[in-house]
């Protein structure tokens, strides 16, 4: 107890000194501000971006840390709940102040709210605060908590509660209400009005990140922590489906974040991520998908991980299924079927007894689909060494013949034909490029030629009228089957231009470049009703 008293006296002494300095500096505010600017500039130069990223990668790539975090998440101890309740009671006694001399000590460029909300010391996930001076996460704010002790040790006094966005001054422990903190609260948890949501796709305005670089909300880079390029392209792709995106945003469109709940984990974290991707006031101009990745690793029981590249079509399918089942227990409409579900009629002919030919009467079956898999014919085997190696090409319409109801698919057990019965608003095409040979995964490098606009599918369906689609999203694969990477082309509907996004890197790209990529997954939007 006496030790605590000493600490407090020390803090009071330090704070008085600082307040005196601040009081003195009021007359020379301009000079101080200039100094701060120089200091910030120096800091940026001293810590190059690349080094920063590497450190993060090492930290996050550590399996043991990841595991212990996940365990913590899944099994909150009763103690932590008790502690939370104590704090609630304590809070009622605490005062709220409009003025706090430490607001000017906040360092926005060091704030990053994309990481899992865990105390950097105890790894606890309740009552976690971010220090607004150094950006680190600490638990608690009551006496002897990690945040409280951090404030004593470092003279960092401003903290934001990561679960409700309230800002406190520690160790004094009063809440600070000030308009100037709103941008910080917004970066922690953006909240959108219906009007804003309705305008997201037509907004063609650039925003400026704290580092001075301009970005377009909705078209920002995502960190690749280790091997999660296959996740990033799927996140980027789903952000382009307005009705689905807005539904996901509405699902957690609030500042107050619930305690960890496995039942809605994927949807909530996906919601937070999508909100940050479209944030017009993003401090960093980029987002880390870290929290969603953690949720995917946990809920897929490590079927999908950060350390190993997986097939993005499998992830897409898994993700949509999970969101669908999570939302099925809520009031939210099932938009996944509404967006992507179509139907194929399959005719199956069985071989005749004499082994020559197939029965003439098929078994007929209607099957729903979320995406259509197209088979790319194998490239020619022989190469002429004297000539330039030609990359084989196939028009998309050739691959779509699989679904014309005439083309047959034979194997010793059956003959099948496929015909599309119903096409969705958003058509997902999956071009099967990867095949397992006896010993290794092989990639078919054939270029599939496709139109960016007015892909008409009326020939594949009985309706007879025009069914035109425009390309929204093109996920492609570059490199070998084993060591390649995924990137994505996305249409900016506001001005009909295209972006190429590879993890953090975003460039404008000409439409001609897109149609010669090694397309793997595409999403088309229907333009005819
Ligand atoms: Zn204060
Ligand atoms: Zn700090």
TrEMBL record:
Domain UBP-type: 98-195
Record flagged with keyword Acyltransferase: no
Any Pfam family matching the protein: UCH
SMART domains for this protein: ZnF_UBP (SM00290)
Span of domain USP: 220-527
InterPro entries on file: Papain-like_cys_pep_sf (IPR038765), Peptidase_C19_UCH (IPR001394), Ub_carboxyl-term_hydrolase (IPR050185), USP (IPR028889), USP39 (IPR033809), Znf_RING/FYVE/PHD (IPR013083), Znf_UBP (IPR001607)
Keyword Kinase: no
Coiled coil: 1-28, 72-99
MF (Gene Ontology): cysteine-type deubiquitinase activity; zinc ion binding
GO aspect biological process, one term: protein deubiquitination
Keywords of the record: Coiled coil, Hydrolase, Metal-binding, mRNA processing, mRNA splicing, Nucleus, Protease, Spliceosome, Zinc, Zinc-finger
Cellular localisation: Nucleus
Family per similarity comment: Belongs to the peptidase C19 family.
Designated name of the protein: Ubiquitin specific protease 39 and snRNP assembly factor
Organism per entry: Tetrahymena thermophila (strain SB210)
């Amino acid at each position: 107890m006496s030790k605590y008293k000493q600490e407090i006296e020390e803090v009071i002494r330090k704070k008085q000194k600082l307040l005196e300095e601040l009081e003195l500096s009021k007359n020379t505010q301009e000079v101080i501000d200039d100094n701060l600017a120089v200091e910030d500039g120096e800091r940026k130069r001293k810590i190059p971006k690349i080094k920063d990223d590497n450190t993060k990668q090492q930290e996050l790539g550590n399996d043991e840390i990841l595991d212990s975090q996940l365990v913590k998440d899944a099994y909150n101890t009763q103690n932590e709940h008790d502690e939370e309740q104590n704090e609630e009671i304590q809070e009622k006694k605490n005062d709220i102040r409009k003025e706090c001399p430490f607001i000017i000590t906040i360092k926005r460029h060091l704030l990053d709210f994309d990481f899992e909300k865990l105390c950097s010391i105890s790894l606890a996930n309740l009552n976690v605060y971010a220090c607004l001076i150094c950006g680190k996460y600490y638990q608690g704010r009551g006496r002897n908590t990690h945040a409280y002790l951090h404030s004593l040790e470092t003279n960092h006094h401003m903290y934001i509660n990561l679960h409700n966005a309230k800002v406190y001054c520690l160790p004094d422990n009063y809440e600070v209400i000030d308009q100037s903190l709103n941008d910080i609260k917004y970066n922690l948890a953006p909240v959108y009005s219906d009007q804003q949501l309705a305008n997201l796709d037509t907004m063609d305005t650039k925003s400026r990140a704290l580092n001075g670089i301009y970005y377009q909300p909705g078209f920002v880079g995502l960190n690749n922590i280790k091997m999660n390029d296959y996740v990033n392209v799927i996140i980027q792709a789903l952000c382009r489906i307005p009705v689905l995106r807005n539904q996901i945003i509405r699902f957690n469109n609030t500042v107050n974040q619930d305690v960890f709940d496995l039942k809605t984990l994927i949807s909530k974290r996906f919601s937070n991520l999508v909100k940050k991707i479209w944030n017009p006031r993003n401090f960093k101009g980029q987002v880390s998908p870290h929290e969603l990745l953690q949720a995917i690793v946990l809920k897929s029981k490590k079927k999908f991980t950060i350390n190993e590249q997986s097939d993005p079509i499998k992830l897409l399918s898994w993700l949509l299924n999970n969101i669908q089942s999570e939302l099925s227990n809520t009031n939210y409409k099932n938009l996944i079927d509404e967006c992507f579900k179509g139907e194929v009629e399959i005719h199956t002919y069985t071989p005749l007894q004499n082994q020559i030919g197939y029965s003439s009467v098929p078994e007929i079956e209607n099957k729903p689909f979320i995406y259509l898999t197209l088979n790319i014919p194998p490239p020619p085997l022989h190469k002429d060494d004297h000539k330039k190696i030609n990359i084989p090409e196939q028009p998309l319409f050739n691959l779509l013949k699989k679904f014309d109801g005439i083309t047959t698919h034979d194997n010793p057990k059956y003959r099948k034909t496929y015909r599309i019965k119903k096409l969705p608003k958003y058509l997902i095409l999956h071009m099967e490029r990867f095949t397992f040979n006896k010993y290794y995964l092989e990639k078919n490098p054939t270029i599939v030629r496709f139109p960016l606009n007015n892909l008409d599918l009326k020939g594949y369906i009985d309706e007879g009228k025009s069914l035109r689609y425009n390309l929204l999203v093109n996920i492609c694969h570059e490199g070998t089957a084993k060591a390649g990477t995924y990137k994505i082309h996305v249409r900016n509907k506001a001005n009909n231009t295209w972006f190429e996004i590879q993890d953090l890197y975003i460039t404008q790209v000409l439409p001609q470049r897109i149609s010669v990529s090694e397309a793997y997954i595409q999403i088309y939007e229907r333009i005819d009703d």
